[in-house]
Amino acid sequence: TSQDAGTIGVTADTGGTATLNVIGSNTLTTTGSITAAVIDASGLTGTAILDMGAAATSVTSIIGGAGNDDLRGDASSNIDGGAGNDAITTGAVLATGSVDAGAGTADTLTVSASTHLATAALGAKYTNFEVLGVTNAVSVDLDNISGITAIQITDGAGATAVTDMSATQAAAVQVIAANGAMTASVKGAATVGQLD
Question: To bridge 139 with a disulfide, which of 30, 32, 76, 114 should be the other Cys (CB 3.0-4.6 Å)?
Fold first, then answer.
């Protein structure tokens, strides 16, 4: 069972913290943004998940539950996916935040803009992800993030690129859509013996 909501806003009392606690056995699905300092879904039980349809605002901490949550933060979010195979979509260039996918075995990081993973320093803020999702018109250099074992590419009319893959990563590429100029390249592919 899913409880559906549009936008959610939490306002703290004077001196307090605006906290949204999500508990129970029903999934919470939002189509709009959640505005709260803390979003805590660790109280969800069974297969219930938090499914965020838009990036949170004014948030410092997002905590997932045991299920396969879909979480979206902002530039200052610290996200802990918890257990389960979580799906986390970048919402901004992380200025002060960090994102730990948690204990899942197929946690997916979907990159929604090239700037979000443009350097190794930014990539180091994302840990414990196994699957990288690359959306239309986004370019990702796999040298910028570690731990990725599979890649999903959804290409539209824009120029989408995934570069510097290892041979192992290249063997685990899933092209969900290819409707524009798509590039997928292996690091050092032109070097003799590199793929032996």
Answer: 114
